[in-house]
């Protein structure tokens, strides 16, 4: 499994395992979570994607309950903050909102460290752009958690280029990534400037829901799936692996974040890295994704 440098001294596995759905699994016992992580590690997938809000602010604790010190040292943890929904520890919130204040960021980091039973977060992301953001305050808070050694790198998620430049303009620490929705089902980022912006700066994007959150397997996408299946048969992998390989093939150095809860599927996530896709195959698949040939 290839690795990508996120910041000097910190690199991630090219494919990341996402834990948004961790709490949806019928089995959230530590042994089961450890089995999922082990299945990832067997394939060289060492990077785990979390957020404070996942599982109604419970998913970080589910992970923490499974993490022995030894296991913690074998993985990198990404987590996020700024979404405040009236649930869990924020059940008194009157409205779902974003909070990029210093106080919220510092408190979120402490919650995440405690719940995941760790002394460091490898990468902290601002989860959603906050229309009420004071970029000086947010930028300084992110610099502060890095300087304190609690967070090794910082980045953003779902930011547009102008959100990125606003926040970065008030920070000393370089932002390391933007985690955006990107898949054969949601591919605007390839043409609306989001990927180009990161590519120009040499910043590796992270792609959430690389299988469209499962919608790639809906009956309406039969045509696209047949194409993926055909390419997969030529390379001895399944349709899902081809969909992920399509992202890996892109020169922007995308890190797909897969979220299956199924142990058999987890054990095959790495198959995508076995397939090196050429330009015409990439466009054959893209043509099926957009429903017509390019102009
Ligand atoms: N930054 C953000 O705003 C944001 C937003 C959303 C997600 N994320 C991150 O991205 C990660 C991945 O998101 P995701 O879970 O939506 O990604 P995904 O990998 O695109 O979708 C996973 C879903 O697809 C289903 N699936 C996978 N393979 C399948 C197959 N062959 N046939 C049928 N269904 C299949 C899975 O069901 P099974 O579990 O049954 O396999 C699961 O429900 C999350 O865990 C989270 O870390 C970030």
TrEMBL record:
Domain NADP-dependent oxidoreductase residues, every copy: 14-285
Entry-linked InterPro entries: AKR, AKR_Detox_Biosynth, Aldo/ket_reductase_CS, NAD(P)_OxRdtase_dom_sf, NADP_OxRdtase_dom
GO molecular function: oxidoreductase activity
Record SUPFAM superfamilies: NAD(P)-linked oxidoreductase
Transmembrane regions: none
Pfam families: Aldo_ket_red (PF00248)
GO cellular component: cytosol
Protein name per UniProt: Putative oxidoreductase
Organism: Primorskyibacter sedentarius
Organism ancestry: Bacteria, Pseudomonadati, Pseudomonadota, Alphaproteobacteria, Rhodobacterales
């Amino acid at each position: 499994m290839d690795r990508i440098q996120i910041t000097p001294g910190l690199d991630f596995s090219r494919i990341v395992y996402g834990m948004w759905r961790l709490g949806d699994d019928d089995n959230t016992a530590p042994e089961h979570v450890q089995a999922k992580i082990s299945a990832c590690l067997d394939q060289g997938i060492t990077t785990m994607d979390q957020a404070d809000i996942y599982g109604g602010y419970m998913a970080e604790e589910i992970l923490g309950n499974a993490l022995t010190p030894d296991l913690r040292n074998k993985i990198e943890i990404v987590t996020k903050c700024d979404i405040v929904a009236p649930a869990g520890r924020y059940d008194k919130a009157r409205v779902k909102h974003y909070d990029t204040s210093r106080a919220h960021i510092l408190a979120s980091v402490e919650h995440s460290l405690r719940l995941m039973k760790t002394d460091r977060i490898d990468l902290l992301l601002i989860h959603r752009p906050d229309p009420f953001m004071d970029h000086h305050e947010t930028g300084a808070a992110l610099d502060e958690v890095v300087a304190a050694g609690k967070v090794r790198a910082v980045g953003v998620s779902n930011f547009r280029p102008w959100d990125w430049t606003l926040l970065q303009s008030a920070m000393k620490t370089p932002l390391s990534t933007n985690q955006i929705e990107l898949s054969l089902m949601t591919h605007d980022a390839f043409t609306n400037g989001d990927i180009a912006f990161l590519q120009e700066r040499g910043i590796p994007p992270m792609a959430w829901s690389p299988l469209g959150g499962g919608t790639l397997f809906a009956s309406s996408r039969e045509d696209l799936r047949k194409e993926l299946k055909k390419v997969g048969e030529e390379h001895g992998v399944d349709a899902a692996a081809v969909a992920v390989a399509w992202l890996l093939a892109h020169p922007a150095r995308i890190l797909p974040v897969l979220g299956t809860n199924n142990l058999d599927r987890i054990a095959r996530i790495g198959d995508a890295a076995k397939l090196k896709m050429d330009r015409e195959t990439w466009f054959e698949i893209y043509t099926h994704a957009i429903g017509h040939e390019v102009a």
